C-alpha cells in the first residue's frame, strides 16, 4: 500500500514553468514505476510521463516531450514533473500514480497503475 500526495500546481502564464511534486509514503517507492497523468474538464485522463522503478527508462507523450521532465528522488520518496514552456492546453488536474508490478510496461495506460494521488490543478493563462 502506498499513499501519494501531489503539490506544486498553480496559475502560470503561457511560457512559464512549474514543478510538481508527488510525495509517496512507505518504503517501497523505489520498487514502483511511477507516472504522471492529467485530466482537463470534460476530457479523459491522459498520460503525460512515466519512469521505471530505477529511473533508467522515461517516457513522455509527444505533446510534452522536450518541455517536461519526469524525475524521482528515492531518498526523499518523491516524484517530480518539471514543466517548462507551458501552454494553455496544458491546463488540467495533474495526478501521479504508482505501479507496483516488477515489469515496466504499458506505462501510458491508466489501468496499469494501482495507486493514485488526489491531483493538483495546473492552470496556464494565455
Give an overview of the whole structure.
The protein has about 130 residues and is mostly beta strands. It contains no helices and eleven strands. The protein has strands spanning about 5, 10-15, 20-25, 35-40, 45-50, 60, 70-75, 80-85, 90-100, 115, 120-125. Strands 2, 4, 5, 6, 9, 10 and 11 form a seven-stranded mixed beta sheet that branches. Strands 1-3-8-7 form a four-stranded antiparallel beta sheet, with no helix packed on it. Strand 4 (about 35-40) and strand 5 (about 45-50) form a beta hairpin. The radius of gyration is 13 Å and the shape is globular. The N and C termini lie far apart (about 40 Å).
Chain oligomer state: single chain
Structural classification: mainly beta
Strand count, sense and closure of the main sheet? 7 strands, mixed
Q: Determine the number of helices (DSSP H or I, runs of at least 4 residues).
A: 0
| Range of helix content | under 10%
Instruction: Determine the N-to-C terminus distance.
Output: 40 Å
Radius of gyration equals 13 Å
